[in-house]
Design a protein that fits this description.
Helix content: 10-25%
Structural class: alpha+beta
Mean pLDDT: 85
Radius of gyration: 15 Å
Number of helices: 3
Low-confidence stretches: 153-173
Largest sheet: 7 strands, mixed
Length: 173
């Protein structure tokens, strides 16, 4: 089992939670090929929204890879990103700044954002457990997604990027 962090705005992560899937690095498949069933994923959000400037600077979701399949999902005529199904768990956001000094994968504590620059990275179990402890305080409880855009699920509603994502984060505090 491995432990990964993917970087995306909070609004994009909410879409993944709602649909039970993840994308990485603007829909490229290379990062998703590294992830295997049972691997844990942490989702770090530097900003609240992709096109906005409001900072988030927190781990905003946590889940585990389901199955080995990666697949494409057509979002527009010219954007067909790669995805992997994820079982998300109910969690609270964990701001990164209070954790920086304790995280081994952040070598330079003054430039703590540096490891996130490529959008996807593997971390050690100790760092994962430290972050997980901030996000999940008991037994992990699954978030039941609508299956929007996840392979093998009929979408109940396809959300647009600008659409209200309130329902997508009902179980995500």
């Amino acid at each position: 089992m491995k432990y990964w962090i993917t970087v995306a705005s909070k609004d994009h992560i909410a879409r993944g939670i709602a649909g039970g899937f993840m994308q990485a690095n603007h829909g490229k498949q290379s990062a998703l090929k590294k992830v295997h069933a049972g691997d844990w994923m942490l989702f770090y959000s530097p900003k609240q929204s992709m096109n906005g400037t409001e900072p988030c600077k927190a781990f905003t979701a946590i889940g585990q890879a389901v199955g080995e399949e990666i697949y494409q999902h057509k979002m527009t005529e010219d954007f067909i990103p790669w995805r992997r199904n994820i079982q998300f768990y109910e969690s609270t956001e964990a701001p990164i700044v209070p954790l920086v000094d304790e995280l081994d994968f952040i070598i330079n504590k003054k430039s703590w954002g540096y490891p996130f620059r490529f959008g996807f990275l593997e971390i050690g179990e100790k760092d994962f457990e430290l972050i997980k402890k901030q996000m999940i305080t008991g037994v992990p409880h699954p978030v039941f997604s609508k299956g929007e855009g996840s392979k093998g699920h009929e979408p109940s509603k396809v959300l647009s990027f600008g659409e209200d994502l309130g329902e997508a984060i009902i179980n995500h505090k």
